[in-house]
Fold each of these.
Amino acid sequence: MYLPTAQLHQATTLAKASKLLQRFGSTARLLAGGTDLLVDLKAKRVSVDHIISINRIADLKGVTLEAESLRIGALVTITELDEEVAVREHYPAIIDATQSMAVRQVRNLATVGGNLASAVPCADLPPVFVALHATALLWSPNGERVLPLEQFFLGARRTARRDDEILTGVGIPKASPAFGAAYVRFGLREGNAIAVAAVAASVQLDGDGAIEDARVVLGAVSPIPKLATNASDALLGSQPTDDLFAKVAELATAEADPITDVRGSAAFRRELVGVLTARALTKAVGRARKEDR
């Protein structure tokens, strides 16, 4: 397979990239690491006349731990994210995802922004970030728009990004001492396998150890990373127990909307959701109690 002919543009500022997007409209795509876009072009899943490289835009790089949040630039690679000390210390659920993503060579190129903006249903970072109450940071000439990440995804390969906007990164609130989150997935093999099903979970415990806030987010079993509201709400006000997690796992299974493909049947994926939900919640509570990293 060969790359189709397209004109390459190099943008060194957000303003230049935005102007190019507005100029070429639907005939253009942004290029960061290229691990999704170039494959899609070769496979003829997308067709474009213009490719806008944003790799030299400094505003899209770096991880910053601020007083109330963690800001992750869109051009941060999966390897950089995995090796970031602030992430490893304060957000171990992200490491759950980065450690399971592709192979080293791909992680060295793939970017956080690309993993989100591609809006592929089986992507690993979106469920984790939604569980962590992340926001999408979108820049346009009119200023920055901050959008809860669960509202960023509209469908498979569709997002709420406007034509003149660029995803500059994500913001994640600072985790409180009694907060824990985890991500678990099932793939058919190690290495470059994509998720057949995945679950991210987060819990906030109160002073008595009961769950006062929780999120259960399903990956690869819905067109978008699905915030399972029934499952999440069923956790509130209760002490964490295996029986509770079993009940919540059933609710999460009912909220899944999987398809059947070469990687597994819809029934198999639903079964996985139940198992993975209980595992993710157990791990998240362990981290909230500082029993598990």
Amino acid sequence: MADLIPHGLAVHLIGRASTELAQALGISSVPLESADCAIFMVSAKDGIVRADSDTWLLARELYIPSIVVITDLTAENETDFEDMAAIASRILDPVVTPYLVLHRDDATPIALIDLISQQIIDYSTGQIEIRDSDLEHQEVIAEFREEYAEALLAAGDDAFENALLYPALPWIEGSRLGLAEIALYLNRVPLTR
């Protein structure tokens, strides 16, 4: 994964499971003031702690591009990805969800659906498999897709890079679900610091 992250990118990670994500990405966390990007880990099980929301405010003051990474997405949790993204939007700032999480019949998260391309990114086999979604999926995501497209249009080009648009992305350590998508956003961060 380290070869997918720009060399020299300085990332600040905060929250539960940040050490595990840093290890999975092959990076080390730096202090927020010297970061090119911040990743805020938000647990679907435990929510957002006050100290993390205070750090969020500092990242906003410093105009540091920020990603909200939602963890603890299990079949046992009552709070799912979409619910936790909505909570993050109320506690932090409005976030956008470029992907939605797809589940097995037993509610285990196994794949993502890209709201722009409408492709399914399947993590269920241990390898990333990308395929076209079917009409049923497209109908289910239509409203989410429209909301996301409107948010992108309103925010303008380079809104994420300019710390004005905050994506919420899922991450499951065991299956690596969401890891490649986090890396895609990290690749968009300008190395300016």
Amino acid sequence: MLKEKRKKMSKKYKRYFLKAKEAKALLKEASERLKISLENIFGAEARIEAVETDFGEIFLINSKPLLFKKEGKVFPTLLFTEFLASAPKVVVDMGAVPHICNGADVMAPGIVRFEGNFNKGDLVFVVDEKHGKPIALGEIAYDNADAVKIKHGVVVKNIHFVGDKIWDYLKGLATATR
């Protein structure tokens, strides 16, 4: 069964290394979006592989699936620990976790606290309060000062979460490379 699934994946997706100029442009775009220097983290000679899927592109930097492009925008995956360490976070209670892992946006009542500084439109990781593990990546709808005052409604628009197509592909990729 697993072999059949891998065969389907290999037929369905195109995988190739980016040329140096394309890799540099991707790192620049992602650095601006994430507000960190990816060149400082990975060096100027980072090897970047692209995987074209039916739901977007996934980019492997030095063999790790760290970025993806969806609807023309670059985002970090939930496995990008170097970005997770410095990114702002929204900590949610355990009752919100199953909803967020099914694709729901993060609502104000489920938020326990905010960590780090952010502006409206910034990318934030959503982490559970019990383990502090990232369960989603989203775009925050408010500035830092305003977000803490919100008592109802959507605070974070869910972009990538545990259990989505990207996550499932990343899990399959990790299994296939073992």
Amino acid sequence: MGAHRRETEISDRGNILMFDKGVGLNLRNESQRRVQNELIEAERMSVIGIMACSISHDMRHSLSAIYANAEFLERHDLCASERADLVLEIQEAVLAMTERLDSLMQFGSSGRINPPVHERVSLVVERAVAAVKFHPEGRNVPITVGKLPPAEADIDARNLESAIYNLLLNACQAATRSTDVPEVQVHLTEGDERIYITILDNGPGIPASVRRTLFDPFVTAGKPNGTGLGLTLARRIAEEHGGSVCLEESIQESTVFTLSLTKRRLLALEELFSGTNPRNAAQP
């Protein structure tokens, strides 16, 4: 009987030891999860803080210009041309604010893909070029469009136009700082599976200090009034089309960006999620 009780005590002690080890592992795992969650939350708050500072700075700059020009418009000694210039500056400030808000909204809508449309990419390029020419910073910059082949792809036309527009506007802004006559070029080339849109400008080049982080959110490459989201959004949209955006070259008077996309990337994704993939339909 005594031996039996002793075996029971040893067995119970072993169970307690095993239980303690399990608790220790759970506590360690819980602690690791808590630390990981705290790091993720800290990073998220940091991004929100940077975004808030960016919005505050940009909006304050534009609103100050609008307020000052509105005060000038109250003067009775202004001629018609002076009033027209002040109104134009107000319109440009409102346009800049609208573009920043649109960029932030698009940045926040990550992963949302509109239904793909089979369309000629050259038409999207032409629409983006036309839109940039209406922008105040693109009006006086010649944009040379190379021969556009009739390349077609399944695309989110609106988002792809936005990506090309952002790259073109950046190029125009850079070209205005050229030591020569500003110039921007656009070329479209087609491969078997991919389409490439190349944009060149003769500006001063990308500063070496920001090249590694160029596509990160809120990196403005020295532009005083930018949100730092244009290249981030362009790369994201290109990736949604199975491609990418790359800085091919950046030296004095020669900066080259290339946006690539896969011809049938979005269609394949749509078929996959809708369950209508022809390869699946053929299977019993």
